[in-house]
Design goal:
By secondary structure, the protein is mostly helical. The protein has seven helices and no strands.
């Protein structure tokens, strides 16, 4: 029986693949097949991965509209692609996945920023997402 992965690991894989698509978004089906060879996800858990990858890809324009007003002294095109990918993934979970508490989406984005981004990134990612949560979703959850 294949072992299950923690949700945080699958979320990390989704982030990694979304970042890959930011760099090279041609032939995504082929890229996903190759990615999943290197980072296999059990069949029982692939929906968790696919929901995030497909959702962020589909809702990118909407996610950017949510993010943009909260980028103090930044613009979407000036943000490092790693940070933008993390922000989009967290906002997607906050906005579209009610089963994920907003504080979990935020803490997971901060955790991944500490691993993959610069020393300063996790604090502004936390601040941006915290502000979005308070001003956009406070009445919803």
């Amino acid at each position: 029986m294949e072992g299950l992965l923690k949700r945080g690991k699958i979320r990390e894989y989704a982030f990694m693949f979304l970042y890959q698509l930011e760099i090279q978004n041609l032939n995504t089906t082929f890229q996903m097949q190759n990615f999943l060879k290197d980072y296999p996800i059990p069949d029982k858990q692939i929906d968790f991965f696919n929901t995030r990858v497909e959702g962020v890809t589909r809702e990118k324009t909407s996610l950017d509209r949510t993010l943009e007003p909260f980028l103090v002294k930044w613009t979407l095109d000036r943000l490092p692609k790693i940070d933008l990918t993390l922000l989009r993934l967290a906002v997607f979970e906050m906005e579209f996945l009610e089963e994920i508490p907003n504080n979990v989406a935020i803490s997971e984005a901060v955790r991944l920023a500490k691993i993959y981004s610069t020393e300063d990134s996790f604090s502004y990612i936390n601040a941006i997402l915290g502000n979005i949560d308070r001003k956009t979703f406070k009445d919803n959850r």
